[in-house]
């Protein structure tokens, strides 16, 4: 294991205490000068680390897989947590090597460098200040039902965010606080011919990022839990809760085939229900009223121009409020 990974993991295990350079040198079996070099390399990479010539510590809680494992008691999801210090995208990592992962595995990173969003957009993560994780599923279900997984995930995410802030769900995949996006979900399926090899559900959460420093266009649309609550979030509590909620809703759904428990959460938390919206795809932009989310997870709208009802699937549309992002 690289020394930097050992150092990161040791500092995480000591958080929020600081650690003397002497202790780090003993732990890594390196000189204190070499430890100092490693620390300043982490700082240069952007790790939230503070140090002087005697000691060092992270000044934010980072993802600590051991801590999450010790609090998880799930039936299916998260029996294996696979952590990377850094990866371009947890979804890409999962999809590129799907064979090597099992049903229920969860990939996590503190630092996603090239995250993917829905509809080909980028998803920005900041080192140690956002959560990027992907849940891998290899279920025995038809693809149509896979569409519902985004709604199940949105329900699990909104429940796990409840103790932190009052969030709403903007169908199909955005978590909203104060009309701004705080988290997003990207569900991707992989096929071999017509057989489903697996589904990867990526979730990105802005935890301890500070959007006050970003340009106005981003600030209008995006926020973090820190910005909204002024409290530092421990990602490990949030991840543990999210995986537990996901496991509970997923287990119930696979046993009963009944989507109503999580669709009820999606409806209760929906920011779109009974609202006037604009439905956009590449060619069209149409006004509509949202009337329901059905048991297949589709958004039911009635178009203003024709009065015709349509069930929108998650793939080809973006939804906007009349005047604003939402
Ligand atoms: C969106 O809102 O458009 C979806 C954002 C999904 C981001 C997550 S972060 C973890 C996973 N890996 C990715 O590359 N994307 C998803």
Range of strand content: 25-35%
Number of strands: 17
Number of helices: 10
Order of helices and strands: HEHHEEHEHEEEEHEEEEHHHHEEEEE
| Residue windows where pLDDT falls under 50 for at least 5 positions | none
Structural class: alpha+beta
Mean pLDDT: 93
Describe the structure.
It is a single chain. The protein is α+β, with helices and mostly antiparallel strands. Helices cover 34% and strands 27% of the residues. The chain is built from ten helices and 17 strands. Strands 4-5-8-12-11-10-9 form a seven-stranded mixed β-sheet, sandwiched between helices. A five-stranded antiparallel β-sheet has the order 16-15-14-13-17. It is globular and about 75 Å long. The termini are far apart. 40% of the residues are buried. The mean pLDDT is 93.
How would you summarize what this structure contains?
The protein has helices at residues 3-14, 21-28, 32-45, 65-71, 90-96, 143-161, 216-221, 225-229, 235-256, 260-269, and strands at 19-20, 49-51, 55-58, 81-84, 106-109, 115-116, 122-123, 130-137, 168-170, 174-177, 180-192, 195-206, 276-280, 285-293, 299-303, 309-312, 318-321. With 326 residues, it is an alpha+beta fold.
Structural key phrases:
about 325 residues; five-stranded antiparallel sheet; binds biotin; alpha+beta; 17 strands
